[in-house]
Amino acid sequence: MSRIRRISQFAFLALFIFLFFKTTFPFESWIPVDLFLKADPLVAFATMISSREVISTLLLFSAFVLLLSVLVGRYFCGWVCPLGTCIDIGDHLHRLPKKNPTKSLRKYRIVKYTILVGVLFAAIFSVQLIWFFDPISLITRSFTVTIFPLFAFIVEGTLSFFIRIGLFEDSIFSIYDSLRGTIIPVESLFFRQSVFILVLFAIILLLGRFTRRFWCRYLCPLGALFAFFSKFRLSKRIVTDKCISCGKCYRECKMDAISEDFQNFSHSECIECMNCVTVCPTDAFQYSLKLRPTVEKIDFSRRRFIHSGLAGLLAVGATKTAFIDKEKSGTLIRPPGSLPENEFLDRCVRCHECIKICSTTGKYLQPAILEGGWEALLTPIGNPRFGYCEYDCNLCGLVCPTGAIHELTVEEKKKIPLGTAKFDKSRCIPWYKNEDCLVCEEHCPIADKAIKFDIRSVQVHDGSLREVKYPYVDEDLCVGCGICVAKCPLDGKAGIFLTNYRQERWIE
Questions:
Q1: Structural domain boundaries of the chain?
Q2: Which of 265, 267, 205 is closest to 75 using CA atoms?
Q3: What is this structure's pTM?
Q4: Tens-digit pLDDT profile for residues 291-305
């Protein structure tokens, strides 16, 4: 069973990676690329509470996952969760001794319940905090912003090295061409906040230096949610009289779920890794099915519940009352089809699926820093100086798991302004130097061109007259795609910038 569990873990991790690479242009997938996020009960609960709406796709997938936990316990953590698998790999590389911490550490299991209550309490007040702690959102974001760019950089650098030295040149070129656009992006990827997200992911893996599955034991709120439902599980594992108290099961347990007497264990902490069953020399473990489940008590007092709620309320107050810079917020551009700002923040779980797929078209979307305040940290925003919103692309709405970005047709997307471009006359070449520059107008995708010219005769430094085309924006035509900003030939700050003036949000 332990071997079967490992096969399941790697199969689901492979599925997660496969869906990750399918989140690309051209977008074709017979299975939802956001399947893991839609099947995440914590994402479903937090999003529906925060938005005050029932999101049918999230409810359908997550309800099925939770019902299975009532039958077989915390199977998701031990058999499915891609972050749990990465933690197991990291723990194996740490080569920790197979022993469990002293009983005194078990009291910290309650921390994950505290985090769960805190983030759900914050969701009641429409503050979405689950993105920071949810394992599926966390690993999807980490793969998008840090792991995949690093992987692509290493693979491309290695192949380029062999090509330069002429070793197996034909074979390497063939491999390079086959990987280009799939495993290796067409252009190098760069994302804001990548160091912060990498450090956070690395810390979660390095916590395994203290004990196996540290994150899962003490911090993971999704694990706490599964643990709560596992209290009512119908299948029970029991220890028979064959037990000889050898202690092998206790030493092999990933979650410290087995007590020191080797007879009792916590069903809510057990992730069904089957290590205990595998190493038991007498086959002392058996399963039984009870139609009336025995409810296991969790040491979560009313006082601790109140403290957790107060912590969530403190987080709500801190984020809702944080200072928002009006200059930065004026250039905050959301993906096409985004809900109104408050509703968008209620639903966005910062999974960065939209950022991943945008990186394969115009490379427009980036994680926010503080443009929208602390509440909007790491949400997707447009960065037109780095990339642009591809005029014929609607992919971000197709991969959003929570509906924060509405699914639009290409024709609908073309008609919705993301913002409006404005010229900086102190930087723009024609306005500043009285010299023609047609780059922004040439790249404008609008058929009638949203950038037009005011042709004037001006006297230059030698006294002669010269006709100069001074560009201006026809605001009735501009859709705020940002390609004019991205293609501006000036170094540093562009001669044209994008604002969220005339930005339209999708209203359901």
A1: 2-234, 324-508
A2: 267
A3: 0.90
A4: 665 566 666 667 777
